[in-house]
Design goal:
CATH topology: Aminopeptidase
CATH architecture: 3-Layer(aba) Sandwich
CATH superfamily: Gcn5-related N-acetyltransferase (GNAT)
Shape: globular
Strand content: 15-25%
Bound molecules: coenzyme A
Strand order of the largest sheet: 1-2-3-4-5
Oligomer: single chain
Largest sheet: 5 strands, mixed
Structural class: alpha+beta
């Protein structure tokens, strides 16, 4: 038996609301999300409820965001782990951190709803975390 073994998860810090617009854009692009201008990214971060950065020995390796009304409805956005750090449990840490925040800050009674839109092919990740993939979600893309 190995004692004192340190897993990668032990070296990850989750830090709230330190994400810069530039790093946000970089993480998005690295994992296939569209590039967005930095001023837009700044507004996105400012208007979200919480963003969390996963940091390993000073290096930003992942992120997640929670948006919503801060009391009753919560939505996960941009759960991202750099490709070379995927499959190590870091995405799970990020989602659990955001879910804990929602649980602590919900003011509606016993239950609250945390939603999101899974990227295609990532449904299994969310299912492992207790999310249900629902067929009756709605969305509409509008011209702006
Ligand atoms: C999706 C993502 C955040 C998962 O992060 P991760 O750190 O690799 O996930 P974890 O290591 O915590 O995985 C937790 C579990 O989910 C499983 N899992 C991960 N990705 C999966 C997928 N695409 N399909 C099915 N299961 C998946 C893992 O195998 C693991 O299972 P286990 O507990 O039985 O070992 C990461 O792959 C990523 O950043 N992808 C690119 C960006 C993206 O598409 N984000 C989702 C936006 S909706």
């Amino acid at each position: 038996m190995v004692y004192g073994e340190i897993s990668i998860k032990d070296k990850i810090e989750l830090i709230d609301n330190i994400l810069t617009p530039e790093d946000f854009v970089k993480l998005r692009v690295t994992t296939g999300f569209a590039d967005i201008p930095a001023p837009h990214a700044r507004k996105v971060l400012q208007n979200g409820l919480l963003n969390v950065s996963a940091v390993k020995e000073g290096k930003l390796i992942g992120m997640g965001r929670l948006v919503g009304d801060g009391a009753m409805y919560w939505y996960l956005q941009e759960i991202i782990v750099l490709p070379e750090y995927q499959g190590l449990g870091i995405g799970t840490m990020i989602v659990n951190h955001l879910v804990d925040y929602a649980a602590k800050n919900s003011s509606t009674g016993i239950f609250t709803t945390i939603g999101g839109v899974s990227a295609k092919g990532k449904e299994g990740f969310y299912e492992k975390l207790g999310f249900e993939v629902i067929p009756n979600g709605i969305q509409k893309m509008i011209e702006i």
